Amino acid sequence: MDQIMSSDVSFEQIYWADNMVRSVLFSSAVISAISKEHFNLVLEIGPYTVLKGPTTECIRLASDNQISYHGVLQRQENSVNTFSNALDFV
């Protein structure tokens, strides 16, 4: 399912079933994004930076550019402070 999703995509049962059984194309998606656009930062939206390792590895393999990486929230840290730090990062 190597395609851009549009607003007409239905998030019904078949979508979620496909989501569970199809392979994840994470690395190819990151590499494709980096090769098409210039990025100077990555901001991970989630409860902690679970994707930092795989993402920074893909970036390292696909680009010579230094790209900063930051998460919005961090485990066992005050969420107001970490969110504020993320906004400062941007």
Structural notes for this entry:
The protein has 90 residues and is mainly alpha-helical. The chain has a domain at 44-90. Helix content is 47%, strand content 9%. It contains four helices and two strands. The protein has helices at residues 13-21, 26-36, 52-62, 79-89; strands spanning 41-44, 68-71. Strands 1-2 form a two-stranded parallel sheet. α2 (26-36) packs across α3. The radius of gyration is 16 Å and the shape is globular. This is BcPKS7, polyketide synthase, partial sequence. GO terms for molecular function: transferase activity.
Can you summarize this structure?
The chain has four helices and two strands; from the N terminus they run ααβαβα.
* Spatial strand sequence of the major β-sheet: 1-2
Strand content: 5-15%
Provide the succession of SSEs: HHEHEH
| Low-pLDDT residue intervals, each spanning 5 or more residues | none
Distance, first to last CA: 31 Å
Work out the oligomeric state of the chains in this entry: single chain
Structural class: mainly alpha
CA-based shape = globular
Helix content: 40-55%
**Rg over CA atoms:** 16 Å
What is the residue-averaged pLDDT? 85
The biggest beta sheet, please? 2 strands, parallel
How many extended strands? 2
Q: Tally the helices: what do you get? A: 4
